[in-house]
Amino acid sequence: MRTAPIMAEDIHFHARRTIEQVEEGTELAPKFDEHGLLPCVTTAAATGEVLMLGYMNAEALKRTIATGEAHYFSRSRQVLWHKGATSGLVQKVVELRIDDDQDAIWLRVEVAGDASCHVGYRSCFYREIPTGPGDFERGLLFRESEKTFDPLAVYGDVPNPTKL
Amino acid sequence: MRTAPIMAEDIHFHARRTIEQVEEGTELAPKFDEHGLLPCVTTAAATGEVLMLGYMNAEALKRTIATGEAHYFSRSRQVLWHKGATSGLVQKVVELRIDDDQDAIWLRVEVAGDASCHVGYRSCFYREIPTGPGDFERGLLFRESEKTFDPLAVYGDVPNPTKL
Asked: For the Phosphoribosyl-AMP cyclohydrolase domain, which residue ranges apply (chains A, B) (predicted)?
């Protein structure tokens, strides 16, 4: 019965008391790192493709739970980030999961516009690293050949989040 | 032509010079965090299920590339970790990808024994966090009902890696 509205501020996390509670229980007791963040794997619900790896702080996780839309914490901009607020590429949550020790999130989403990468590709993971025997100087292999959107048209002169 | 053997020590990463090089180029120039690590999403190649989120240091990434078997860096034990060395649940690399700014890895694998979680489940992400309207005290929902293996039988008295 998911009927009553819920606000991010209504959501409270449990204290972490025992390994059994964290691994085998039903209490949400996430562990954030020294920066107050946990990593979030976001996949396309329909295909299983990994779209991006983002980070959530407590507020982003609470808003994602409350709204059913993906929120992250932008490490490059150091702000709460409602994915799609600038680009329109909102991610609707199909399923939200947490891992055994509750320090990582798996988010299955449907994406308006079918793109999640600021470079313009569908997935951020558009290049393969060849493995196994062979000459390592083969270099990376592109696995998406065309961009889904034009980053300049969507983001304009917003600074590129990639840091060297 | 992936025929010549390659050793982890033969693999060298490129220096990060420009955003264009990192995002749009074919040079492998990974960015490790202040602990010398980058996160790695590992999925089952056949189903797209997210099995685990691990971390790699430079050595783990080089060994994964060279051997075609997943290597990680264990943060709890602070050692290089050939996945499956203890449990036998080796992860064979089907495809290795890197993201736009080269600070995250996506590893598609086949797993001997069909399990990747130290608690005994197939995936580490065996619990769902309900989202959207409703009473938050619903708690987590188990999405795997049976363990794939018995952790006690496989790991014996090896310390549990989960930290509170």
From this structure: 52-126
User: Is residue B1's pLDDT more than 70?
Assistant: no
Place of tokens 């990747």: B116
Domain span at B110: 8-154
Q: Which residues pair with B106 in a beta bridge?
A: B41, B97
CB of A119 within 8 A of CB of B102?
no
Q: Which of A4, A53, A132 sits opposite B68 (nearest CB)?
A: A132
Tell me the C-alpha distance between B73 and B66, whole Å: 16
**Of all helices (H) and strands (E), which one includes residue A147?**
none
* Gap from B112 CA to chain A (nearest CA, Å): 18
A164 is a domain residue:
no
Distance CA B126, CA B143 (A): 5
Flag if B97 and A143 touch (Cβ within 8 Å): yes
How many C-alpha atoms does B19 have within 13 Å on its Cβ side?
Answer: 7
For residues A134 and A45, give the distance between their C-alpha atoms in angstroms, rounded to a whole number.
35
Task: Answer whether residue B164 is part of any domain.
Answer: no
Nearest Cβ partner for A98 among B99, B129, B134 = B129
Is the model's pTM score more than 0.95? no
Number of structural domains chain A divides into = 1
Please give the average pLDDT of every successive group of 10 residues along chain A, which has 164 residues.
72 94 95 97 93 96 95 94 88 96 96 77 92 79 85 76 86
Cα distances from A23 to residues A17, A19, A30, B156, in angstroms, run 11, 6, 11, 18
Residue A162 in domain: no
CATH assignment of the domain containing B101 = 3.10.20.810
DSSP conformational letter for B10: G
Chain B residues with beta carbon closer than 8 angstroms to that of A71: none
The three-point CA angle B146-B152-B155 to 5° equals 115
Q: Is A10 annotated as a binding residue?
A: no
Asked if residue B69 is part of any domain, the answer here is: yes
